[in-house]
Amino acid sequence: MTTEQLIADSAARLFAEQVDKGLRERAEAGMLDAALWQRVVDGGFPLLLATEAAGGYALGWSAAFPVLHGLGHWQVPLPLAETMVAALLASRAGFDLPPGPLTLIEQGQGNTITIAREATGLDGTLALDGLADGVPWARHASAALVSLADGRIALLPLQGQRGVSLQPRSNLAGLPADSLRLQGARVAAVAPNPLPVAQPVWTLGAVARSAMMVGALESTLAQSVRYAGERVQFGKPIGANQAIQQQLALMAGDVAAARMAARVAAADAPDASPGSPDGRATRFSAAVAKLRAGEAATRGNAIAHQVHGAIGFTHEHALHWATRRLWAWREEFGTESHWALELGRAAIAARASGFWPAMTRKHF
């Protein structure tokens, strides 16, 4: 059995046993399940991508893919993906990893963060100003890994930190996506971006969200197929209707394409292992995966709710746990239109002669 299979079995067993409607509802009420988080920590999931020197496992993104996929498939309300990405970047930069969950901020993407001052002498650090909206799980995070526009990364403590004020907010899934106001908030550590990837938080966040969206899409598809086989109208299951079969087939095709794009993005993402990819294809593959997952979510959610009819819109039915996450995650770390615009501009710049070579090497 491969490492990926062992991790997949462990994550599936944990999430299937521990995640239920009550836990999801408590998360939407603003609570973080400390017991489940501890189980996740005990399983080593937050540090799968982190370096061995920082206590991590230095595994690749392909090995971590089942965990990220499981967060979507079982709609697990934890800041695990954010912590995994932050731990990778922080450990590669040589930062001491703070305990507890971590979150992510990319300067200039949905925020007005600026460097307030570059301290010298005894301070030897920098401070940040500005407003950051939609910071996932910020209220529960001990620190935020901030990717700066000048090519550096910084670790910003959040709990009890002077100059940091938080306004609780939620995304479309009802999960924490808080607003942070920074006024001279001092970072604990700063270093050059340790990975050969531009905007590492934005890019790797897109890789993580794509894997999570594939998990949620597969859950949505499975629920729709099952309901179409169980719901009887006019003496036969509605799934016997050719029009519904066609719609479910279209949805299945979208899910399969999104799954493959997300797996390619995971394979192309740099990590802490000695044979880590060099990052040249990371941005391209992340863009394709997030674009493809977003398109699949847009079409798939519409089909799923059409198949379920009115019952699919009720809070009592399980469908919304997946579809609301897909709507929320579609907006986070770049919408499909954001990534399509980046790919389109690069393709135009490459002109006809450079288009096919760029596609085959996954790098414009």
Q: Tags for this entry?
A:
4-stranded mixed sheet, single chain, alpha+beta, Butyryl-CoA Dehydrogenase, subunit A, domain 3, 10 helices, 364 residues, 10 strands, 50% helix
Radius of gyration: 21 Å
Number of helices: 10
State the secondary-structure class. alpha+beta
Looking at CATH, the homologous superfamily of the domain at 200-361 is Butyryl-CoA Dehydrogenase, subunit A, domain 3
Spatial separation of the terminal alpha carbons: 37 Å
Oligomeric organization of the protein chains:
single chain
Strand residue content: 5-15%
What is the residue-mean pLDDT, rounded to a whole number? Answer: 93
Helix content: 40-55%
Give me the strand/helix succession. HHHHHEEEEEEEEHEEHHHH
Largest sheet: 4 strands, mixed
Which architecture of the domain at 200-361 does the CATH hierarchy give at level 2?
Answer: Up-down Bundle
Extract low-pLDDT stretches: none
* CATH top-level class of the domain at 200-361: Mainly Alpha
CATH topology of the domain at 200-361: Butyryl-CoA Dehydrogenase, subunit A, domain 3
Tertiary shape:
globular
In what order do the strands lie side by side in the largest sheet? 1-4-5-8
**Extended strand count:** 10
Describe the secondary structure blueprint for this structure.
Layout (H helix, E strand, L loop, with lengths): L2 H16 L2 H8 L5 H9 L18 H13 L6 H13 L9 E5 L7 E5 L7 E11 L6 E5 L4 E6 L6 E4 L9 E10 L2 E4 L7 H31 L1 E2 L2 E2 L4 H27 L13 H27 L10 H13 L4 H26 L3
Parallel strand pairs: 1-4
Antiparallel strand pairs: 2-3, 3-7, 4-5, 5-8, 6-7, 9-10
Helix pairs in contact: 1-4, 4-6, 4-7, 5-6, 6-7, 6-8, 6-9, 7-8, 8-9, 8-10
